[in-house]
Predict the structure.
Amino acid sequence: MKTIIKFIFYIFFIVPVVFAENNINDKNQDAYDLYKELRCLVCQNQSLLESNAPLALDLRKVVLDKLEEGYTKEDVKTFLVERYGEFILLKPKYSVQNILLWVGPILFLLIGVFVTFIFLRKQSMNKEEGISLSKEEADNLKKILDNNVP
Amino acid sequence: MKKLYSYIPLIVFFVLILFFARQLILKEDPSELPSVLLEERFPEIILKKLGGYKLFSVTNLMNANSPSLVNIWSSWCVPCKIEHEFLMRMSSDHNILIYGINYKDKKEDALKVLDLNDNPFYAIGVDLDGLQSINLGVYGVPETFIIDSDGNIRYRHVGPILEYDMQNIILPILDKIMREKI
């Protein structure tokens, strides 16, 4: 009885794991990485990996076929960009056209920090000016306060 | 001088407004991709024959006398059915050569559609597994390419061609290509 249970355990739990391990070779890892980096053009905010659209399945097949033909990851990307445009890359390239996309957020942050800094400094300077009265003002103030005392 | 920097956020705000307004007013659908292959040769793709219909091969497009359309369609695609009428009108009323690429379809279903609704295509090629169309950058049916008489892609239309698209986009571009030739 025990052996049978053991046997069943092996079949259902160990064997699939062994097969899965064998399947993960370099090519599949490359394909997996590419699936994550490429956009499904039907469900446009999903990657090929997440999407179940028929086109995504086809594109996955193309990626795998090309890797098998000896294409590198970069070659596969270039192949697809030539056909679908840079839009297929989920992460835009670092290029001159995309410079605003990459630098923009930092630029806006810097503008914000700069303006806030100047604004705060100006405000604190106003405060200091307000605290220290000139001699004339101090005398005036004293006079008013004294006069008000009955 | 003191004033200038305090206007920076306002200026940035207005630049952003202009940017967003442009996207709103132009009404370009950002999910529609322009073809990467514009002004380029129609790629070499290999298609199979559909029943008794003339086989469309890429060589048909080279050194043609007139511009032509390449339409990707399928029997299971509903917008293609709507578009069918306009393809018929273009091929019969305007004498435009339309080549069809039958995309991931069952042969019997495709033949049935052409039997029932008439055939707008001069020649047809079958792309059974959809992998040939990937070379064209196709990402959904229907799509239509306008090819000039030298076999270069001049325009790509994503989605069905309706009355408006036919009158205001497709026919004018074909006209323009014809006039270039003279």
